[in-house]
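Thread amino acids onto this structure.
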């Protein structure tokens, strides 16, 4: 992987020399949106509080790239990174490399988090990581443009979204040729798995693999969902959408060049920045239904302590601090990162900055998990097979029915090797 890894030292205010027991803890941080800055600031507060030192390991933006890099480090039993930032679908894949936090973190702290997210971080009774923030896919829209074109509310179905996006796009392109109706994550990576799972579930096509491990993707509703998404390309979505990740979609929407966008909650705070062309003009709603239900993929990131860390006690203390209510509140207010601590959804300061945290609370609590639980260590292969099949449909190489039939066979082969 040709990625320059930045190591940034965040020294404690108290000189290390004056604290004989001070240690250096290396923390892996993501860099999407405001992630890196907020991670550095939180780590610096812990360093100042404890007299320790923190080095920041800047991870790649794309989750697939990040996972590959982490797997290399962990397979080598490297002690270079003490605390890893883990995607919600990774605990089953990486659990053997992480310290069991059960018993090392007080039960009251653990129980303050959403139970479902704690469950997602628990593998064979082992608490692999503590939740840091949760995510669910959301529909962002331009409130001013909906009003301008006579629409009273956000679309409730994908059909409505397509009709509204087409009308707004046609009007706006008279003066802005680069304007798009709808932008989303169409690049072949984990982000596409998230978007496409939302389509499939919303059409009633299941969750790729069900909770018992049965492969369910080969059905007419799943095929219809993929064909519907393919119909948006070069219609309400630009041809280039098949290369977009979260930041590419956000850049277009925030520059005022799209009516609708699918993204995670972090995009809200950035959209309200002074440099945003759409500040004060953004609405947030549940993603549309395909006829079955609204569906948002469960996302989110956790903090785990490496088995190979030489400073496990300090690393666990850092994880407890960053995942605690004080830091989660700061991140919610400054970056619109959804807390995993239930009480913060009633915090007036958090809700003042992120009103949709309250109005869309059910979206976050009923988000659809990717099938990482039933597929365990094979989840990454399952996800790559799924996103590749979806990509083939989006790029016109296959129709939905042929793609889900082929995918069924590919997943059966993966399952045949055990999951």
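Threaded sequence (419 positions):
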């Amino acid at each position: 992987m040709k990625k320059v890894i930045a190591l940034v030292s965040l020294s404690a205010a108290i000189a290390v020399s004056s604290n004989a027991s001070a240690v250096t803890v290396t923390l892996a941080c993501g860099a999407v949106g405001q992630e890196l800055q907020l991670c550095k600031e939180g780590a610096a507060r812990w360093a100042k509080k404890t007299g320790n030192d923190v080095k920041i390991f800047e991870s790649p933006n794309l989750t697939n790239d990040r996972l590959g890099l982490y797997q290399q480090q962990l397979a080598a039993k490297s002690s270079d990174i003490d605390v890893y930032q883990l995607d919600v679908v990774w605990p089953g894949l990486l659990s053997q490399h992480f310290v069991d936090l059960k018993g090392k973190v007080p039960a009251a702290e653990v129980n303050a988090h959403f139970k479902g997210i704690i469950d997602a971080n628990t593998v064979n009774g082992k608490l692999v990581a503590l939740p840091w923030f949760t995510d669910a896919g959301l529909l962002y829209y331009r409130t001013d443009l909906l009003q301008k074109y006579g629409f009273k509310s956000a679309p409730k179905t994908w059909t409505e979204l397509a009709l509204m996006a087409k009308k707004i796009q046609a009007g706006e392109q008279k003066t802005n040729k680069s304007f798009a109706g709808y932008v989303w994550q169409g690049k072949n990576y984990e982000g596409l798995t998230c978007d496409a799972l939302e389509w499939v579930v919303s059409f009633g096509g299941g969750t790729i693999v069900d909770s018992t491990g049965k492969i369910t993707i080969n059905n007419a509703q799943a095929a219809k969902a993929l064909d519907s998404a393919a119909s948006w390309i070069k219609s309400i979505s630009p041809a280039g959408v098949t290369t977009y990740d979260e930041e590419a979609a956000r850049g277009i929407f925030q520059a005022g060049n799209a009516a609708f966008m699918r993204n995670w909650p972090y995009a809200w705070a950035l959209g309200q920045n002074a440099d945003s062309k759409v500040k004060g003009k953004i609405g947030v709603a549940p993603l549309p239904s395909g006829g079955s239900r609204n569906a948002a993929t469960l996302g989110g990131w956790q903090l785990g302590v490496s088995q190979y860390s030489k400073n496990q006690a300090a690393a666990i203390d850092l994880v407890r601090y960053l995942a605690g209510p004080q830091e989660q509140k700061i991140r919610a207010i400054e970056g619109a990162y959804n807390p995993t601590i239930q009480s913060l959804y009633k915090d007036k300061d958090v809700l003042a900055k992120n009103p949709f945290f309250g109005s869309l609370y059910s979206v976050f609590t009923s988000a659809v998990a990717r099938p990482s639980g039933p597929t365990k260590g094979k989840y990454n292969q399952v996800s790559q097979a799924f996103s590749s099949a979806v990509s083939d449909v989006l790029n016109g190489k296959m129709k939905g029915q042929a793609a889900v039939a082929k995918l069924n066979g590919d997943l059966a082969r993966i399952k045949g090797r055990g999951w």
